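With this grant's support, we have settled on a layout for protein records. An illustrative entry appears below exactly as we store it:
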Amino acid sequence: MRGWIISNGSMGNYSFYKNKITQSDLIICADGGAIHAEKMGIIPHVIIGDLDSIENNCNNRMLSKEVKFIKYLTDKDETDTQLAVEYAIQNGCSEIILIGCLGSRFDHSFANVSLLKFILDRKRKGMILNENNEIYLIDNCIQLKGKIGEKVSLLPITKEVNGITTDGLQYALQNAQMIFGIPNGVSNVFVQPNVKISIRKGLLLVIKAHD
């Protein structure tokens, strides 16, 4: 099952997201993400968090639609988005897509990117999605589909990432190494519609850009 986590960050083109969500998906709002869900015309299965960001009117409308609420104390260690991710895992999601997870607060954005490690450690597929980016974290390999000319960046988040091999990119890598702090993997280019990226050791952010 695929789970969608809707957080309270930046979202613009609501139809971009709504068109990707299917009836079989589990939809979880992290607190104020419920406002985005309502603007998309989507009724989530559950709203989770300390509920300090959701507007009262939205809260009441969701209650009237019998949406499940799980409330936590404000004084907690976990972010609302982490709680939503944990709920998705506990309820059988093998793939988790986070939206509304990037925005003007870099600390929140980076915290949400770090949740890709949380998801990866639990043997699930994870992605952060917005209108311009698909963000993945890999410790093994990934296959991507895209248009020729689209950009993809490879950024190490461990001290070293070893054994990087790519297929279908303009700047091909074969058993290469990247070092954290030297971002020379930015803006590689699709030369085939199907791309494969694999690594032998480390953690690699893979960011496909749509702009």
Notes: The chain has a mean pLDDT of 95. Residues 106-121 form the longest helix (16 residues). The helical segments are 14-18, 33-40, 56-64, 80-90, 106-121.
